[in-house]
Amino acid sequence: MEKRISSYHPHKVQFVTSAPSLAHCPLPDRPEIVFLGRSNVGKSSLINTITGKRSIALTSKTPGRTRLLNYFDVNDELYLVDLPGYGFARVSTSMRDQWNRHMYQYLECRENIAMAVMIVDIRHEAQKNDLRMFNLLGQWQIPTLIVATKSDKLKKSQLAPHIDKLRKSYGSKCALMPFSSASKYGIEEFWWEVTKRQIVDANS
Ligand SMILES: Nc1nc2c(ncn2[C@@H]2O[C@H](COP(=O)(O)OP(=O)(O)OP(=O)(O)O)[C@@H](O)[C@H]2O)c(=O)[nH]1
Ligand SMILES: [Mg+2]
Which residues form the EngB-type G domain (predicted)? Predict the structure, then answer.
């Protein structure tokens, strides 16, 4: 029997660890969702919003806040992983290359990644590094949901045109949804998208 969507909402959320590298990650003993996107786009805020925890993930107005791989456990059955943002202009090229290398290695090698959530700013056109990441995720066969956040910054009438434009850039078949951490818009839809991918066992 299918569970109600609301039953997938997190009832127990815990911070697990901050890992500086692959070697320090927790055992891959449960599926995980990785959250990625450009620096300052709202990844950590989104994790707080969908888990209903105000500040389990640290957020900041200054880009580059999340520098480690931060693990959060949901209901003892799923990891959410807050990754450092990419495309942060104020770090040196060598530092950025090192971050990218780590992240690519992680995405390619971590065996329990069930899904990626790529967060983009709904106000902006598809950015080069987002398109590049989206294509890489496809190559690595990681199912990807694009979450277009900060929708509170747009008028209601602007939402659909912006989503259409993004959909044109990422492909008509991509999974893409509007979201806002500020107005808590899209939480149900987010968990529905996760449920659809059967990451959480419907019979457990
Ligand atoms: N208006 C609005 N502001 C948001 C939203 N989501 C995040 N912000 C703001 O955007 C800024 C960056 O948010 P974070 O969640 O720290 O972004 P991040 O992607 O984790 O940033 P890094 O860890 O530095 O890569 C903060 O000032 C947030 O308050 C949203 O939905 N609406
Ligand atoms: Mg962050």
Answer: 29-200
With a cut of 0.90, is the ipTM above it? Answer: yes
Q: If we measure between CA atoms, which residue out of 3, 72, 61 comes closest to residue 35?
A: 72
Instruction: Decide if 45 contacts 102 (C-beta within 8 A).
Output: no
Ligand 1 binding pocket mutation candidate from 103, 181, 183 (most atoms within 8 A of CB): 181
Residue 78 has pLDDT above 60, yes or no: yes
Pocket flag, ligand 1, residue 48 (CB < 6 Å): no
- Verdict on whether the full-model pTM lies above 0.80: yes
49 CB near ligand 1 (under 6 Å): no
Q: Name, in order, each residue with C-beta under 8 angstroms of 139's C-beta and a sequence gap of 6 or more.
A: none
